Here is the input.
Amino acid sequence: MSPATAPPILLASTSPQRRAILEQLGIPFETIAPRYEEHDPPEGDAAALVRTHARNKARSVLDEAAGRPVLGVDTSVALDGRIFGKPGDAGEATEMLADLAGRVHAVVSGLCVLTRGWEVVESEVTLVTFRALGRRELEAYVATGEWEGRAGGYAIQGRGATLVERVDGDYLNVVGLPAALLVRVLAERLPGEYGFG
Here is the structure.
């Protein structure tokens, strides 16, 4: 089987970034909004949290899969035991970015691929170093509106790239989907079906 004839994966997400990454990887997919509402505590184990969210997103749409694999993904930003979710307003976004400025934070994604017969749940960590940022720079970035709906309040694939000094690990994980991890899972669980393994 080739990616052209493989059944499209059901992506339990409405994220345009995740769609773009799957297109980049040449993986056929269809999207569906997950029927799961995530709640991020301010502190805790970010890896355990995103794995739970990814699993619950995928499981919430399994009945719609019609035998296809389901993909659930969740991403958080973590620093010093604190979990940075999606800011509620521009002021909160500015404060989040100020806390991240000049520091190394972890972008942690949970990934779940499941079918009726099996389930794989793993996580990936990418370390991102922000350069030192002045208040004026932070406010100018927040004024772009890119922070909306973004864990940690920034979009590295957009103007948020100007905040970043270094990325250690899977860049696409910071964009919104741990691509290397997904490819490995597909190669191991569905060898050849999507062009991997």
Summary: The chain has one domain: 9-189.
